[in-house]
Write a structure and sequence with these properties.
mainly alpha; two-stranded parallel sheet; 4 strands; 60% helix
């Protein structure tokens, strides 16, 4: 169930986020970084070790989970929020982004500039933007099929690979990078070199630990499966951060400025059981959009403060399979004239989400 918490403001913005800079701790940041780097290496080695295939598969999935946790660290670094100091954030971010193959400068352009600058504004925000009915009808049969797949439970398996990752945050080949590609080449080459070294290390280590395994199985356990798991978890998380029956999209900037903005278009998805503290903190996403400079390890405190002082910024729910299925069923296309979600036939699935 969605909860809108109404509370009297507790004071100004500065008071609510007093000493945000002082919350950035080099010691705490390095502890988080080294912990998840160690867990990434531990699960990788165990995925390649001569255990039973089921144990190796389990460690391989765990390795994908650790890639996701390092992505969260890298994401924070790209906002210069993880630790004090530009260079510390720059290099920790680059290293944390190596397993998920993201170039830091490309991510900052797509995420910090476009996504944060115009959250849920179609044509500006590149992440999980829904089609309108007119766009859907004008699309080719193959494109319509792809959209239907993306807006289903299987969507995250394909969306990040095909729609976002390769030419937006790995290589500077998307249209918005035209004329600016040279500034991103260094980070892209750094990531590609890291990928080459990682695959080589996986092959060497896999042969040393389990010489009886074929190369394809070593690559599957050491890279392909972990990377696929990270892609799925990342894509699901990005989807749930800003897609919900109560959350609108916009195609006109003046309307977005009047009724949208980051707080009105961001959801706090809570976990029913908090077994992944770093992931749970990351999903306190409204506070992150309200103040991207807040470090991940202070984000849940910032979210609680935000709920107390701003009633419009507290759209939240606890994740469940039932709620996820409801979101998928309702949020297919977006009708920008009636400002509501619609199914693939154009029938509204929600009431109008902003006043006329």
């Amino acid at each position: 169930m969605i909860t809108h918490c109404i509370a009297e403001p507790l004071g100004g913005r500065a008071a609510a986020f007093e000493s945000v800079e002082s919350r950035r701790s080099l010691g705490r940041g390095l502890l988080v970084f080294t912990t998840y780097t160690g867990l990434y290496l531990f699960t990788l080695v165990d995925a390649l070790a001569p255990f039973s295939l089921w144990a190796s598969l389990l460690f391989s999935v765990g390795n994908g989970l650790m890639i996701s946790m390092l992505f969260i660290v890298g994401h924070d670094c790209q906002h210069r929020a993880f630790v004090p100091g530009r260079r510390w954030n720059l290099w920790l971010g680059r290293l944390a982004f190596l397993p998920c193959l993201h170039a830091g400068s490309l991510w900052r352009q797509a995420h910090n500039v476009l996504h944060h600058g115009r959250t849920n504004l179609k044509g500006a925000d590149p992440v999980w933007a829904p089609m309108s009915m007119a766009e859907y009808r004008a699309a080719s049969p193959a494109r319509r099929l792809f959209e239907r797949i993306c807006r289903s439970w299987a969507g995250p398996l394909f969306y990040y690979y095909a729609e976002f990752w390769p030419f937006t945050v790995l290589l500077p080949f998307s249209s918005e990078h035209r004329g600016k590609r040279l500034r991103h080449i260094g980070d892209s080459l750094f990531v590609l070199a890291g990928f080459t070294c990682t695959v080589a290390a996986i092959l060497v280590l896999g042969h040393a630990l389990s010489p009886q395994r074929p190369i394809w199985l070593v690559l599957l356990l050491g890279w392909a499966l972990p990377f696929a798991f990270w892609n799925y978890l990342g894509a699901v998380s990005f989807y749930l951060n800003h897609t919900h029956p109560d959350v609108p999209w916009f195609d006109k900037e003046d309307q977005w400025r009047s009724h949208g903005g980051a707080l009105a278009t961001t959801v706090h998805m809570k976990l029913p059981i908090n077994v992944l503290p770093l992931y749970a903190s990351c999903m306190a996403h409204t506070a992150h959009h309200d103040r991207p400079s807040t470090p991940i390890y202070a984000l849940e405190t910032a979210q609680a403060s935000l709920k107390q002082r701003n009633a419009k910024a507290t759209l939240e729910y606890t994740f469940s399979i039932r709620e996820y299925r409801r979101i998928l069923a309702v949020c297919k296309l977006f009708d920008f004239e009636r400002m509501c979600w619609a199914d693939f036939s154009g029938k509204p699935t929600t009431p109008r989400l902003i006043p006329e």
